[in-house]
Amino acid sequence: LLIVARHLLIIVLSRVQPSNLPIAPMALSSLSSLSLWCWTLVLLSSTANGQPAQAQQQQQQQQQQPTEGWSAGKLRSAAEEAQSAGNTAQALQFLQQAATLEPSNPVNYYRRFKLRHRKRDYVAALDDIRQAVELAAQAQAGAQAGAIASNDKHVTDYRTQKAKLLVQLGQCQQAVAEHELLPNDARDETAYQTAQTCQATLQQAERAFFQKDYRTAARAYGSALQLVEVGSDLLLPKAQALLELGDFYGTVSDTGKLLKMHPQHLEALYLRGTAYYKLGEHEQAILHFREALKSDPEHKQNKEGHKLVKKLDKAHKKAQEAMNSGNWDVAIEQYQKARKLDPTHQVFNRKISLELIQALSKSGDHKQALLEAEGYVELSGESIESLFALGDAQQAAEQYQQAVNTFKKAYEAAPENSEQERQAKQKVQEAQVALKQSKEKNYYKILGVSRQATAKEIKSAYRKLALQWHPDKVSEDDKEEAKTKFQDIGEAYEVLSDDELRGKYDRGEEVFENQGGGGGGGGHHTNPFQFFNQQFHHQGGGGGGHQRVH
User: Fold this and answer.
1) Are 226 and 205 in contact (CB under 8 A)?
2) Cβ atoms of 241 and 221 closer than 8 Å
3) How much of the chain is in helix, strand and coil states, percent to nearest 5?
4) Which residues, in sequence order, are CB contacts of 447 under 8 Å at separation 6+?
5) Which phi and psi (to 5°) does residue 97 adopt?
6) C-alpha–C-alpha distance, residues 25 and 303, integer Å
């Protein structure tokens, strides 16, 4: 909780007006001091709660070993032997007993520090080295007062080790302070310079974050992470900066590292969920928001993130359902609603825009479809995806020459020998066929459907038009026109309702023998009245006659 509070404070302070920025150095200093205690509490808690039952049992067995009457020196020797044998747990137990016998002897804590440091149990090691430094400093002060003997070298060695460990934990300001407590001639200059570099880099990172210079902040946090070993405290603000920059994959990567160390880190779960959301991976986003809400059902950011994703997905689902059922107006309304829910969600809104263009074309609103498609190209550039969308809208609007030109652009822009190049080539050919057929008899236009119409849409259009233009349904003056239209409608449906014939027609091949190519007129092989009766399940109608429709 303290870690979260620290970085929330960083974010809050980043909203401070420029005139108040002089408070930043003091704030940074306080935050850095707080950071050390944050990690001490968190990792000590983790160590206490995460000790396996087997290790606890082993420790109990070690406590039962006959060490009664042993001196502290003998216990330290036994610890060395245990360590040499690879039994670190027993060595630690012996040193604990030695510290109990001699609580004022810094050697006990220093040796325990070295064992824990070797095990990478850094926070427990930090507690030990702190005690060793404090006791050695007290002994040194007592020696200077003439009370006791002291070894100044111990103080120097212990404090140097403490400073190095602080750098490993990312507590670089404290590390610099420890080095500066040593005399100049006793200081490890290399370690001191490393601590200073780390401190300066972190100050630069936090100052840049306050000023919303997220690029500099992310770069500086990255540099600092190269100097430390346990960078949990630095990964969160770096991930936040990357999110602000739109580097969503970087955010996913850094928060993933943090969550490996702290699986229930609420801020990390929120940032990672948000990054997945921005990438359009809504399922992953929901998983992360839900995981956080298991720990804190009222966590504001995760709660709002979860609600927004569900809202967008619901609107998108409604639009797709309307689209699939042919309710174009409802689909258009839902797509427009979904797009307004989060105007900053570029990946989602691009997908919605593409589907909206299709819905507008199918509804017959070609003018608006073209406006949407042109706007999409302007917004995203002449990408393959945007050119396909524009070309499809142009073809649906019967702007065949423009469609040919647009698809040719896509073909030229596509990577060589790629799937996109193959698709673009096919679209060019289809548009060229449509252009040729537009000058002859266009079966799609006769039925009033798009070239992408489904079999169901084609059948529905045929039944409606066939009933409308059946010669028995018109006045005597309109019979000749109706007879011609009725024949064309039947011919169009005969071709487009047959997968093989439709395929030939779409490729610009001859559909009927002696047709002359391209689907041009006059090739209808079935009596249109017989064909009509077959489709409407009537009988009769042989020869040139036809059954009267009532």
Assistant:
1) no
2) yes
3) 75, 0, 25
4) 453, 458, 461, 462, 465, 489, 492, 493, 496
5) -65, -40
6) 34
- Are 272 and 243 in contact, with CB atoms under 8 Å apart? no
DSSP string of 206-224, one letter each residue: HHHHHTT-HHHHHHHHHHH
Alpha-carbon span 187 to 181, nearest angstrom = 9
Report residue 95 as tokens.
């040193």
How wide is the angle at C-alpha 376 spanned by C-alphas 373 and 377, nearest 5°? Answer: 90
CA contacts within 13 A on the Cβ side of 39: 25
pLDDT at 373 over 70: yes
CA 229 to chain centre: 26
**Structural contact between residues 134 and 118, judged by C-beta atoms closer than 8 angstroms:** no
Tell me: the pLDDT tens digits for 427-483? 999 999 888 888 778 888 889 888 888 999 999 899 889 888 888 887 888 888 888
Give the Cα separation of 390 and 394 in Å (integer): 6
The torsion of the CA quartet 272, 276, 279, 281, rounded to 10 degrees, works out to 170
Q: Contact, 367 vs 361, CB < 8 A? A: no
Residues comprising the chain, all counted = 550
- Tell me the three state secondary structure of residue 362: helix
101: buried, middle or exposed (CB in 10 Å: 19+, 13-18, 0-12)? middle
Burial of residue 12 (CB within 10 Å: 0-12, 13-18, 19+) is exposed
277 pLDDT more than 90: yes
CA distances from 484 to 70, 135, 477 (A): 116, 109, 13
Judged against a pLDDT cut of 80, whether residue 294 lies above it is answered with yes
